[in-house]
Specification:
Number of strands: 15
Radius of gyration: 20 Å
Order of helices and strands: HHEEHEHHEEHHEEEEEEHEEEEH
Length: about 350
């Protein structure tokens, strides 16, 4: 006889504890709740020794015209082929990056009653802490807790940020925004456009930061730290610790994005693929669950994810030609993210929803 299982009831009971995945670990569980189990078995091979590896791009000397051209060429190649690259010598100091990771750790390792003040599923909040934004809609739950805060276009009052890491959240966000603006310059040049083209399109108008905490998992083979997905923004800049677990899908094989000292991971988002008319690729990636932990990562998303605007985005006209007609219709960021949030359970990718038919 199959044991009766009320998934929604179990999820609701878990959510109402407001203690997150860390609360389960602190309680000493040895078996993870069923709603964390993978919904689909992944038979895609993982390649440890592969001809493809995620490029590491050194930004040192970018003011020199010859060096800058080399950097732009590498950004172009990475954006066209893998959609992922790592950058070093990006101007954010090691001390700031280390303090940011420690600040995120301090938040998640506070007393549960302190964290509960931030626990919410209300996207209008300046700071939102919970387990999985898509807890009630995703086929399987990720083994992680997160808190997020938006820094643009509307900067929160610093008093709204958690006291235990307030100063470093503000400082890191300022510095990663500068890195993001510079990356959009390089990407604009890689497309053959004016360096300010993507900035002038307001690709850096929105800045949302997710601070993830992946506790050690007693049964990592049954779940995922983060399930397979592509990002819904223009660009993502990720700071990760040295535990590892991030993988990118390349040529239908999973490739490790190995942590590099002092590096930031950069990946193309769906909206950038849309406006570049498929020239630069947004690719699927995931994070493995592990016995080791906690794993800390901080993802900076460049897009107005929460704050709606009426600005329309479609393939950049300067990139189009008779031989390269537009492949996507125009959309607002809000419309795209709203559709993205439905998770496309039927297996289609969110970008496919916005493709033009041949008759259009």
């Amino acid at each position: 006889m199959v044991e009766e299982y009320d998934r929604l009831k179990e999820i609701k009971a878990f959510d109402e504890t407001e203690a997150g995945v860390k609360g389960l670990v602190d309680a000493g569980i040895t078996q993870i709740p069923r709603f964390f189990h993978k919904s689909i078995s992944d038979d895609i091979p993982v390649l440890k020794d592969s001809q493809f590896s995620v490029p590491i791009i050194d930004l040192k000397g970018f003011n020199d015209p010859i060096k800058r051209k080399e950097i732009v060429d590498r950004v172009r190649e990475a954006s066209e082929n893998g959609g992922f690259f790592q950058i070093i010598n990006h101007s954010i100091s090691k001390s700031v990056m280390e303090e940011m990771k420690e600040g995120v750790r301090r938040f998640h390792e506070q007393e549960t009653e302190v964290k509960k003040a931030f626990y919410t599923r209300d996207y209008s909040k300046a700071v939102m802490y919970n387990t999985n934004n898509s807890l009630y809609t995703s086929p399987s739950t990720d083994w992680r807790d997160s808190f997020s805060y938006r820094m643009a276009p509307n900067t929160p009052n610093p008093k709204e940020l958690p006291l235990v890491c307030r100063d470093i959240l503000v400082e890191y966000s300022k510095q990663v925004m500068k890195v993001g603006i510079f990356l959009f310059e390089l990407i604009s040049e890689a497309l053959g456009l004016n360096p300010n083209h993507l900035f002038d399109m307001d690709c850096t108008e929105g800045h949302l930061v997710f601070c993830h905490y992946y506790p050690p998992c007693p049964q990592p083979e049954l779940t995922m730290g983060t399930n397979k997905h592509a990002d819904m923004d223009f660009l993502t800049v990720l700071l990760q610790d040295d535990i590892g677990g991030l993988q990118v899908l390349n040529d239908n094989k999973w490739i490790d994005v190995s942590p590099q000292p002092g590096a930031l991971v950069v990946n193309i988002g769906d909206l950038l693929q849309l406006i570049t008319n498929d020239r630069f690729k947004s690719v699927e990636h995931r994070v493995l669950a592990s016995h080791i932990g906690p794993r800390i990562s901080i993802a900076s998303f460049f897009a107005t994810c929460v704050t709606p605007t009426s600005k329309m985005y479609g393939p950049i006209k300067e990139l189009l030609s008779e031989n390269n007609p537009p492949k996507y219709r125009q959309t607002t960021v809000q419309e795209y993210i709203s559709y993205f949030g439905k998770k496309c359970i039927d297996g289609t990718k969110p970008l496919d929803r916005f493709k033009l038919t041949k008759t259009e």
